[in-house]
From TrEMBL:
Xref: InterPro entries: Rieske_2Fe-2S (IPR017941), Rieske_2Fe-2S_sf (IPR036922), Rieske_Fe-S_prot (IPR014349), Rieske_Fe-S_prot_C (IPR005805)
Domain Rieske: 43-135
Protein keywords: 2Fe-2S, Disulfide bond, Iron, Iron-sulfur, Metal-binding
Gene Ontology MF: a single term: 2 iron, 2 sulfur cluster binding
Keyword Disulfide bond: yes
Name of the protein: Plastoquinol--plastocyanin reductase
Lineage: Bacteria, Bacillati, Chloroflexota, Chloroflexia, Chloroflexales
Gene3D superfamilies, alphabetized: Rieske [2Fe-2S] iron-sulphur domain
GO CC field: membrane
């Protein structure tokens, strides 16, 4: 191998390594960000017993509401409206979620009470670790309708 060929091969290898590194960094930058305790990761909501029945608690960093029905079931309800994606808020005085953009309303379980939202609010899976509710905000679950099996009873 000539000296020129050796240098060309070496420069090509260095260039290829640089391109691979740039590609890896780009993929890492574009990939979903998963941070424990924030939206996109696992969020510890707290002890199940600390949430009274018929209550809704907002978790702004997790972008969800923890709803507890009057019979004790839990549901992690996404705050993203199913119409065009605005953030809904919980209106305690009217016992409903309200979307500020086009006026959709949802009940405590996220079911549509007033269109134009086409379907109930999404939910997130809830697991229990030593009595603590943990919500996985990386996995939104779309629903066409609400059903009793969507609730978690601890
Ligand atoms: S985005 Fe919520 S009603 Fe349109």
């Amino acid at each position: 191998m000539s000296r020129r060929d050796f240098l060309t091969l070496g420069m090509s290898a260095v260039g290829l390594l640089g391109m691979l590194q740039m590609g890896g960094m780009t993929l890492q930058f574009l990939g979903p960000r998963r941070v424990e305790g924030e939206f996109g990761g696992l969020v510890e909501a707290g002890l199940a017993a600390s949430f009274p029945p018929a209550s809704v608690t907002e978790f702004p960093d997790g972008r969800f509401f923890l709803a507890r029905t009057s019979d004790g079931g839990f549901l992690a309800v996404s705050r993203r409206c199913t119409h065009l994606g605005c953030a809904v808020s919980w209106e305690a005085s009217q016992n409903q979620f309200a979307c500020p953009c086009h006026g959709s309303h949802f009940d405590l379980q996220g079911d549509v009470q007033n269109p134009p939202a086409p379907r109930p609010l999404d939910t997130y899976p809830i697991s229990v670790r030593d009595g603590v509710l943990v919500v996985d905000t990386a996995k939104a679950i779309p629903r066409d309708q609400i059903a009793p099996e969507q609730l978690l009873y601890v």
